[in-house]
Each structure stands twice: as C-alpha cells, then as structure tokens.
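BACKBONE STRUCTURE TOKENS:
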Amino acid sequence: RTTMKSLRFISAEAFVSNAEFARKSLGAVAHDLFPLLFKASYLQEQGEVIHDLVENWPLFDFNVGKLLGATLDCQEDLSHRTCSVCLESCLTGLRDYVLNHSSPYMKKLKVVDLTGIKDVEVQFCKCKKTMGRWARTQLLSKLCSELLVYLQQAQCNPGTFEISINVLIDLFVTERNYELVVQALLKKCSCPLKICCVAFRSDNLTLQKFFYIIKLTDPSLLRKLEIVHNVHLEIEHLEILFNSIHFPLLMSLTLPARTFNVRRFTATDEQMLTNIGEKMGEMRQLTELSMSFSILTGRIQKLLSPLKTPLKMLDVSNCSLNHADMAYLANSFHANHLEALDLSGHDIPELYPSTFFKLLSHCSSVLRSLTLEDCNIQDTHVNMLILGLSPCQKLQEFKFIGNPLSSQALKHLFTFLCELPMLKNVEFPVPRDCYPIGITYPIDDASLCKFDHQKYERVAEELNLILLQANREDVKASTPLFGSYDAAVQETNNELGAYLIKSFKETLEKFTTSFNKMS
C-alpha cells in the first residue's frame, strides 16, 4: 500500500528514524513541526520519540485523531492504529509533561483529545499489540492517580499545581477497572490531568456501581452512553436514571437487552414508558438510539414520538415489532433522516412487506447502513428486495446473514449490489443449499457450523468473482457466523465469559436450593 507523502514528511521520517539523535535534537525543532514529527514517529512506532514529543508539546492542543488523520503531508490515516507501544508512549509522555522541570509558564497545553482513536479488527502496526478503549481507560486512570500521589509526596514547583489540562476520552468501565476509574474521577479537581468523559460504555457492572460512576463522569458533557452487557437495567431503573440525571448533550444512547418487556407491563410500567419517552424528548441532540433484544410490541410510537430531533440511527433488532410499530416508523419524521437502520430478527416478508418498503423508500436518499439479519428473506423475495434497495445509492454497508437464501439467489443479489456506488461492506449468509435438507430458520447455535464448508468456499469465490468482474474490489464480502466484530467485546471477552459462568453457577445454586426445599 503506497500513500502520497510530501518531501517534508519524508524528511520527518528520516529525522525520527534515529531515535537517539531525534530525542537529543528536539530542543532545536520549530514548534510547528511537532505535529509532523508525531505522525512520522507513530508510523514508525518510535515509542521513545513519541514520549519525548508529547512531554515537550509546545502547542495549545493535542488532538490524536487529527494528528493521525489524513493530512496534506501524509494521506495515510493512522487513527485506526491502536498500537500499544505508541499509545502508551503518548499517555506516559502526557504524565511527564506535567512533571517536566521546564517553567510551568512555558507550558501551553490545555486540551488533549483522545476520542478520535478508532478501534478496528485488523491492525497494521509492527508490534501487533493493540491498546483498546478499555486499556486506554485503565492506563489514563492509573497515570492520573499516580501523578497525584507523586505531586503530593515530591517537592514540586508550586506552579505545577496550576497546570490544568482537559483530557477528552471515551471511557469504558467494567467491574475489573471500576475502582481505578472511580478514584481518578473523584480526584479530578486536584489532578492537573482532568479526565473529561465524552462517551461512556459500561459492561459487567452492578446497577449500584453504574449509578455511582455515571454521576462522577459529569453527565452534562456526555455525548454517547452505552449500557451493554450484564448491566441489569430495566424500565424502572431507566426512569430513575433519566429523572435524576440530565444529559443535555447526549447524541447516542444504547440500552442493554431486556430493558423493556411489554408482555409483563402493568399500568405503572406504561406510565414509566411515557415518562421515559418525554425525558428522551428533552434530549435535543439525541440522534442515535439502540434498543435491541427488548420486547417493544406496539410501543414504538409512545417511545419515539416525543423526540424533537429526527433519529439518524435506529437499532430495534429482535424487538418483536408489530405492524403498528412499522407503520409508525414508515410515516414518522424519523424515516427521512435514517442513515443506519437495524431491523434484524423480524419476519419482514410475512409481517409487513409493504410498510417496510415504504420505510426504505423514505430513508433511501440518506441510508448508509442496513442490517436485516434473521429476517426470513427467501429466494422469492430477492427481486422485491432489489427493487427496494435500488434508490439507496448512498448505502455503504448491507448485512443480511441468517436468511434462508440459496447460492443462486445470492449471485443474483450480488450482481445488483455491484451497482451501488458507495457500497463497501457486505455480510451475507451461508447459502441454504450448503446446509443439510430440512434445516429450519433461524438456525440454532448448535447447527450453525454444520454446513458443507467446501461448497460454501466455492460459492464465496463465485460471489467475489462477481465483484471482481464488476471492478468492485473495494467491496469486502464476508460471513461472520457469530456476528460482526465488536472491539469492546473482543477486548473484554475473558471478563465477560467469567461473568457469564459465575451467573450460571449462581442460578444453578438457587435452583438446587429451591429443589432441595421442595424435596
């Protein structure tokens, strides 16, 4: 992969390639060259040079996403390289910036922005070791706490305590790093490095801990809130959350599975749902909402109609939506603005084909991502699907695994997909004819991998050939059997697994105790 580099950037690469020389010479480097040298050092994974550049950073802000993004000097975007060597050097350099003995009055840095770092599946860095969002949260919290201890114990220049740097970060908190993050947030006022949480994700936390830490993050600054795995938040807790905390800047909200279950609703629950809808209506910036695996039959209008701002992203996968829900979505003011839509787990052809296509036609001019997994789309529906997708000229991503489609139908569909000019990513199902005759959909986990792998490989080759012959090498086509890559789950899967085993064990113990009592 060759990318355009300016002569300035090539010179910067040559300068940082000799780490010892570069570190000794930094004092003589013009301030406006620091960003250039930072990106060149990052590209070469020169950890020591990165550390010294950050320790002596001469500018008012340090925005990692911008520094690593495509520039005129180097068009390659490195913001998706979460290289452990480089990021650790950045953060320790930041700590040492505070401790550096140069006069505090020479220190201009006011804002550090770590939010532009993107966690992706394939890494190109030489060290092959990544530092994900959880690890960045962990290290920054640790450095803030250590910094404070050091400043309190050592004889520091009094001006050091005058240093105040806002560090913008997307925090990711689980049971394992909870205490460390809490300590860092509690001492924020005294620490020169001030954690400013822009996005917050929590997994594997008790409700008590979640409520405590979310208040410490300063929710008035929060733009994205993700409450995902093993946080047992239900409708009454969500109402308490929205009643007790205001999120004026919140743009994106992800709720855990089973937050809502209308099958068990009482009159009180209905009122709570109304209140939650009204509270979300007060969040004037909210444009992204994910509520997958809740049971919301017949309640979508109640929840979404109070919103004042149209949604750009909606995930209602596996939410048991009925015709009234789909009709509301198709006719609502959200429909014309939806850039990302996930309706997985609904039998679209059987339940509401015309209403779905009406919704698709309304969002077709802006739609970028469409997910229709396990939607019972069969060969007889492919022509209709092509008709519905034809106006979606901005579509970049189409995911439809888990649908009972034959090899022939997939080839027909791929021939059409080649015509979508912006398409970059397709996730397609294992063809039905690769499974044993009589397989039923949705396929259970035990049967998911029991298909003819050789036949699948042949079909996948043919599908890629269709893309190749249409000059669409830019489209990535794959079959992730167990769902798309999730950087957060990947990073914390050991903790997630341990938590699930513990929960299963506790449930088993309760069952045994109850059974013994009955006996």
